[in-house]
Amino acid sequence: MHKHVKQLEEFEKRWRTSVGKFYTGERVVIRGKDLHIDFQDADWMKLLVFSITGREFTDNQISLLSSIWVYSSYPDPRIWNNRVASLTASARSICSLAIAAATAVSDAHIYGGQTELRAMTFLIKAKYQLDKGRPLEDLVFAELKTKRNIGGFGRPMVKQDERIPHIFKRAKDLQLDNGIYLQILKDVQGILKNRKYRIAMNYGGVVSALCADMGMSPLEHHAYLILVFSAGMLPCYLDALSGHSEGAFFPLRCNSIAYTGPSIRQWVV
Known about the structure:
Oligomer: single chain
Radius of gyration: 23 Å
Shape: globular
Order of helices and strands: HEEEHHHHHHHHHHHH
CATH class of the domain at 113-225: Mainly Alpha
């Protein structure tokens, strides 16, 4: 029998998993804990990160993880992902499709979820470099030479990130600002500044460092951030749905398009 057929038969009627199980009419188990008993006093963030990582975080860590979300929810319809939510409402489609589409475009390489993934990956490489006794500068300049940028640094359109002072203060207040990855991020910033590079750390870099210091892997970190913009998407959807006319969201005149194709033609019916 072909090995792939055997594998399919093995999973035909069962799926082995350690993440949880629903015992119909009795209870729900999530990673070995009873959802309705062990999490009866838990907030959403505590459940979310436990479901992703299988680990319990301290109250201070949960507070910081919640603040990271709060500081990223901008209810501005002009922002790229909120624009998708508003456009969906303007087309009078349903809320679930709006948030699904807006979440999908949030996972962008330049200014979305992929940037944090790159940032944490870089920080892990940097720590490995230091653990091997190699200069951090070598990795920084190798990244700049091969990729022309560094994960966790730089921001499109504007140089400063208004969220950074707030998240640094929050981390300090919660006594979570002394981790090794956050220090590495600051050291990289110092290297860039000393060499006159005008590349500042961004919010994704700070968040990635803080989450790495909490023990998250890049994949766990990415999963945790998937819905980080959602509290900004929902009001934009509702505003476009109930407060404006159908099809009215940022209409574009035809003569505003830089068209270079064939000129006006007569159609023969």
